[in-house]
Amino acid sequence: MSTTSPTLDIGALQRLRILCISETGWFDTTTVFDDIRAAGGAQTDQYAIPWPPFGALHADNAAGFSALLEAEATDGSVRRVLFDTGWNPDWMDRRFADEGIDRLLQERRIEALIISHEHFDHFWGISSTLKHYPGIPIYIPEGFHPAGLAFIRQQGHSGTLSTVSSEQPLLLFPGLAVASFPMSTLLQVQGENVVYARLRDQGMAMITGCGHGGVLNLLDYSRRTFSGGERIHAIYGGLHLSPLEDWDSQRDQIVKALSDYGIARIGCNHCTGQTAVRKMLASGLPVQRGTASKGSQTDLFLGNGDVLQLG
Which pTM does this prediction carry? Predict the structure, then answer.
């Protein structure tokens, strides 16, 4: 790890409220991976698989990942950002209605959509956002494919579309920044955005979609990049430790290493995996439990409709 001092001061927030709109990417993992194998395997172009909204293949299995970030500045003003927009528009429409996201979009009280990465369960439900706010500014990572860019246009987007450079984090507003990480993963998807927020008197919070870049790498990035970034207060989102519930000694080492960061709150979900969460709980890590409601299948971690309140 670099020993140079962090130089980027992003400011600070008074508090950050993270609402889990949906962590349920899909309901049955076997079905999703059977579909991928039938389409040609892990290197298949995801746009060739007729899942919703491009087709009806196992539509009842499709859901999606999405969260609302509500940030209170030190002057008391509140700003809201949508982090990912899910997969199946039918599912996302229901989740948006249940949590009042549709109304917030209609009233322009959500100022931007950050897409973590191009995977179907984080991005293909974008019509559920754009039908309420066609002009919402969108931030994507480097590596988006022409098919993904065309899909955004086809869904009626009329606002600005910005690519976050992997060379420099983007300060969205004081206290909250977006960093783009190069990566290549399943179904030809490249690049992932990660959100970093600094909480006054507490430290940094890191918000991930899947964390394909590796949770330890992403935490170390905070340490060497941001002023105050060595103090990690909380993490939220998919940590991609055991998404298929497999386990090995390397993953044990990751869980052990997480204990060295002094993290006060871990709001993991989505692709973290239940096996990983049980390992983290057994090691004493401060995983926040959920309610197992609104379509989520376990209370081991934060699920649909649950909230992580920071600050």
Answer: 0.96
